[in-house]
């Protein structure tokens, strides 16, 4: 696969960098607008083992923003759609799937300690807090996405949870983590744009905003893997 898959990547980060990514493992939690694009970038970078966690299926309302959503995948499990897409890019990638909604009562079904990194792109506060607490307990690195809905700006930043502001989801997660004795040491992606008013209870969205967030999360993970291997630039 190297000549046709990692040639240009190797030109940028060297053979050692490509090998470091191939040895790495990342669990992507949530395969929607944010998680799907994070998965896309991780797979194309050559991450060797990727876990896919989501209990949902692709629906028509996902078509406006989710890279795994096409007219052909509507009705398919998101984990199945994600697995097929990863293997269509890198047949050598080891893909592991978890068809569940991550919550405290289902968390034991996922062995987080098997992964080097966790990308948190799930929707609920309870799921995010559980993921963060378990990752920290297992000394697994994690980066967590805060709110991306009801936004037109894709000017996201990644900072420590203690440095977040404006984002309502970040505020709620920060409060729950503080109650569990975690006040800092968690990297999160968030926006300083105040959420716009939607027309319904479901968060409104547009094509490019969650995509940018997902790509930034993947870039964060990839750069850290390379730095850990002494190849980051």
Describe the structure.
With 233 residues, this protein is an alpha/beta fold. The protein has a single domain (2-228), classed as 3-Layer(aba) Sandwich (Rossmann fold). 39% of the residues lie in helices and 15% in strands. The chain has a seven-stranded mixed beta sheet, sandwiched between helices. The longest helix is centred in the last third of the chain and has 21 residues, at 208-228. The two termini are 24 Å apart. 42% of the residues are buried. The model has no long low-confidence stretch (mean pLDDT 95).
Number of helices: 7
- Write down the Rg: 17 Å
Structural class: alpha/beta
Total count of strands: 7
CATH class, named Alpha Beta
Mean pLDDT: 95
The neighbouring-strand order within the major sheet is 3-2-1-4-5-7-6
Quickly count the domains: 1
| Proportion of strand residues | 5-15%
Assign the CATH superfamily. Answer: NAD(P)-binding Rossmann-like Domain
Helix/strand order, N-terminal first = HHEHEHEEHEEHEH
CATH architecture: 3-Layer(aba) Sandwich
Q: Identify the overall geometry.
A: globular
CATH level-3 fold name:
Rossmann fold
* CA-CA gap between termini: 24 Å
Low-confidence stretches: none
Largest sheet: 7 strands, mixed
